[in-house]
Amino acid sequence: MPTHTTNMRMKFPILALTLEVIMIILFGIFAVYDDGKGHGHDPQPGNSSHPEKPKDPMSLYPMFQDVHVMIFIGFGFLMTFLKRYGFSSVGVNLLLAALGLQWGLLTQGFWHLTDGKIKIDIFKIINADFSTATVLISFGAVLGKTSPVQLLIMAVLEIAIFSINEHLVANIFKANDVGASMIIHAFGAYFGLAVARVLYRPALKNGHENDGSVYHSDMFAMIGTVFLWMFWPSFNSAIADPGYTQLMAVVNTYLSLAACVLSAYAISSLVEHKGKLDMVHIQNATLAGGVAVGTCADMEIGPFGAMLIGLVAGIISTLGFKYLTPILASKLGIQDTCGVHNLHGMPGILGGLAGIIAVALGKKDGHATMQAAALASSLGFALIGGAVTGLIMKLPFWAQPPDQNCFDDSIYWEVPEEEEHEESLTAEHYKNKAEV
Amino acid sequence: MPTHTTNMRMKFPILALTLEVIMIILFGIFAVYDDGKGHGHDPQPGNSSHPEKPKDPMSLYPMFQDVHVMIFIGFGFLMTFLKRYGFSSVGVNLLLAALGLQWGLLTQGFWHLTDGKIKIDIFKIINADFSTATVLISFGAVLGKTSPVQLLIMAVLEIAIFSINEHLVANIFKANDVGASMIIHAFGAYFGLAVARVLYRPALKNGHENDGSVYHSDMFAMIGTVFLWMFWPSFNSAIADPGYTQLMAVVNTYLSLAACVLSAYAISSLVEHKGKLDMVHIQNATLAGGVAVGTCADMEIGPFGAMLIGLVAGIISTLGFKYLTPILASKLGIQDTCGVHNLHGMPGILGGLAGIIAVALGKKDGHATMQAAALASSLGFALIGGAVTGLIMKLPFWAQPPDQNCFDDSIYWEVPEEEEHEESLTAEHYKNKAEV
Amino acid sequence: MPTHTTNMRMKFPILALTLEVIMIILFGIFAVYDDGKGHGHDPQPGNSSHPEKPKDPMSLYPMFQDVHVMIFIGFGFLMTFLKRYGFSSVGVNLLLAALGLQWGLLTQGFWHLTDGKIKIDIFKIINADFSTATVLISFGAVLGKTSPVQLLIMAVLEIAIFSINEHLVANIFKANDVGASMIIHAFGAYFGLAVARVLYRPALKNGHENDGSVYHSDMFAMIGTVFLWMFWPSFNSAIADPGYTQLMAVVNTYLSLAACVLSAYAISSLVEHKGKLDMVHIQNATLAGGVAVGTCADMEIGPFGAMLIGLVAGIISTLGFKYLTPILASKLGIQDTCGVHNLHGMPGILGGLAGIIAVALGKKDGHATMQAAALASSLGFALIGGAVTGLIMKLPFWAQPPDQNCFDDSIYWEVPEEEEHEESLTAEHYKNKAEV
């Protein structure tokens, strides 16, 4: 095992500390606390002037904490389904999000300086958390095949590119995307898929022993799934106009997710061996309804419309896992570890299309063409940005894992020796036997 | 293994999709967003006109999210204690709750139409989540011995019956039950026990190899226990009158639960072999204080009264697990997998009785006789409704599991082969050995 | 194995029930619900009269629930990293916190009686939860080497002593410590270390087979880590002055924690074998930034200052785990199971020192000398109180575990026999084989 190539000593500490020092310096120069006169960044034209902005600076705090849980517990544990990659999934998720929220606060803030300063409020830290979601989605596409060093680089580049596209979508096109189906989900998915394509590993074409789950790792992943599922209404409504618009965003997401669960379970059983349910589908496709209703969440699509979107999202997402993912890997050389194309990619596009239709039908003020431009822009920045980022990540000195060590924590983490556990169990076993 | 009888292909997908399509059609006809003129459904006479209804439509949202976590993480993981049934516990919990919240929103809403419409607000989705709790409690009684097909049928019937009883209790009897000790906990428990009785399996009389926990499954269950325990004050106060009444409901529940923990631990150690603690008691009996204080939560019982209720609840619940559950199984043919009789049944009745006494003592406006009628009604609807539902579930074509395959996920789920795990561990083992 | 000495029957039930009965009696005498005229206890001079106290008695409830999750899920699961001690970690954590919050509500309330009564509001139950944190931190220092009986005794004594020191710091010195770096973290850590010193076990000097983690136990511990990390902004801002001061406390903690993650990961990789990451560092040192910024959280230190504190905290905490903990054990006879000295001790002192400097620099009203007195007082009460408590806990009849049974749940818990699991896996294995 050529461990010298995977040894992160020096490379990782130096990169991580350097990035953090740069962050601290930039915050020292640009960041101040909101003093109550700030407006907060806002991807929607509808309330860019925040006419209804609540007086209490803490009013969005519970929403922020729900989003925070989705980012750190939701995304982190969702990826722990791999049998030997749990440390990296939840651990590197924490690392990337911790860096990303600082960087996102800056890159988004630079577009909205007040007297040359970024005034930090709850609204801005919610958007900072949002920006990290793009990286965590892309992380899912390359999970198990990249080093923490490569991923830090991806985080820095992806969030910078995200912020440009978001500014374009929100402030130039003035398009609606309150739940970020386009600017976060579709963007993050296709960015990650582009990276995965560039980092294609032919040797893994026939799978890898550790590229799979065990019983307990699937249980840990369900912690992530359920927390994401529960708090998605907060994700889609956090930055909506306060009051009844926000309530509508909550209700639409709540109902879309509920409908999505039924269709995901139904299709999983329909396509699986002996009508059984497949954990991969349940862990992921049940969330597609939250992604797909994102753009329309604050539009007058009605409970009926929201549920229809959720129903369709659950179906296409499950079918994607079953039939599309294998084809992408074998035909296009896109090895999508977590199937982000099925959870974030296609449902994200579905959300964008639904938004175009909804706006065209007058469910919310806006221009259908601008919605279409926003979707195209998000996909374009994602594919090009991801390809370029992938090429940089492919440089041979980022401590990337050799093929045979993919999907294995022990290459970047001190992993406890399970044997001791086995032994203690045996001991326990005999002790119990003896007591009988 | 007669897998043809357990094969869910067609049966499950068709039922799940049909139910979801019906839901979407009914929502299309009846559901609209609350526009601010709605009153919200309310099981309490005290504030059925919502004199204090807050202006901000989102004010109850944090409470809703706490309840949401109890439903999906709390109930879901609490049932993962079984060694080979974790996928079904958390997965089917998600399925039933996702269907139930849609159906509950409708069945509760039909009693309170505004201009022929159900106006959805946070108050209504909290009650929709509540209605699913009855099904999840009953699920615990039949856990491991029913198919997802049977459980979908149970969910539809139980929530419909629940809504009738709830309407009777809240609007006809005008009884107090803010924390739903009677209409959710006692109802759900006895409904499930009636179903379990009808589905009695003599072959399981002497237990089943998989009807037990392993170390890690008990740890997963504690995730459910602790989240239920923490957020129970929200469950009992979510629909209380805003302000100091709601604060009182929080404080009463907080203190009742704390007292309950001490008594549950004490009794567990007292009755167990060598004074040891039993995880089954800790996972369940520590929550009985939340159930038992439910009806009285918004009454002036005082911290002293709340703690006394919690203390007693912890004692009877633990004793129930130790001595009553085995008798119910052997003498009455009621095989209560999760012991819901001890966590929801007896403590629910205790809560109802405490409510009768508290109202009689003038701790809150109301009529003790109506409180008694509410308890009787809840038990009556539960036992009769559960028996009828059980008979329908007993029809031989719902893909129910044969006795030998009970408590085993692999009959309805694609379960990863643990052997691979074992192998990788061995490999790991030798690699580590080699490095030494 | 001298099980007779570890048999808790009678000792534990009698102590637990007696304590609970005493609590109920004291609550009956002293506790009433807040009627809106209460002020709530407050460790800060700045708002001891609560000029801005919000009208809505529930306004702090979401903050309370975040803190609640940190206490019961955060601390509970953080300690589940030990391979055979998960039941005790999360279970005894629940027991101690449930007793502690009742006792803390009383001991803190006695200093602030209104008409001879303790008026319970959300502010007071937040502080009650806070008081339990000291015990849970100390629990980490003696984890695996104490009996539940000993720990109940520790909880009663530590919270009483904590309340005296807190009163001194907040109301006599009128020092600032909004996030409790000094009065909770440093106090809890040094109290626990003093207890650990008194309970020194020479036989464990060369380690213990069960004093380590396995893969899944490290995953469970990450649940605790991430929930603590996410909700720390609530911990540090819950009792801050409402409005922009509270926002500042949130922002400072959010940024300090983010910076801390990067430095903790960097140093972990720097000092570990082959540049790998160590789970012990990730689980703990990533949180040091929350501890260290506690005292300064509501001061005008600026985002820059907060991040600098987090950066330094992550570094010293990781270095402490790597180099200091072994020395404390070998040279000073302080066996710190969870390394609380690195997570709460040193970062707590760092927080106290930062507070002295910040106040001296006029970042908040106050006297640097009083800040210094607060730190000295917290350390003094902790060391002396811990030593005395340790001596009482050392009395030979508290069912303490013999050396060879330390770090093993099976001595105080009914532990399921893993062998059955192994068997069922083998069965599963062959069944799958057969199906092929």
From TrEMBL, chains A, B, C:
Pfam families: Ammonium_transp (PF00909). The keyword DNA-binding does not apply. InterPro entries: Ammonium/urea_transptr (IPR029020), NH4_transpt_AmtB-like_dom (IPR024041), RhesusRHD (IPR002229). Gene3D superfamilies: Ammonium transporter AmtB like domains. It comes from the Eukaryota. Coiled coil: none annotated. GO terms for molecular function: ammonium channel activity. It catalyses: NH4(+)(in) = NH4(+)(out); methylamine(out) = methylamine(in); CO2(out) = CO2(in). Residues 55-409 form the Ammonium transporter AmtB-like domain. It is found in: Cell membrane. Keywords: Ammonia transport, Cell membrane, Glycoprotein, Membrane, Transmembrane, Transmembrane helix, Transport. The chain crosses the membrane at residues 12-33, 63-82, 94-113, 125-144, 151-173, 179-200, 212-232, 244-267, 304-324, 344-361, 373-393. Functions as an ammonia transporter. May play a role in the elimination of ammonia in the gill. Homodimer. Heterotrimer; a RHCE monomer interacts with a RHAG homodimer. Component of the ankyrin-1 complex in the erythrocyte, composed of ANK1, RHCE, RHAG, SLC4A1, EPB42, GYPA, GYPB and AQP1. Interacts with GYPB (via the N-terminal); this interaction bridges the (RHAG)2(RHCE) heterotrimer with the SLC4A1 Band 3 I dimer complexed with GYPA. This is Ammonium transporter Rh type A.
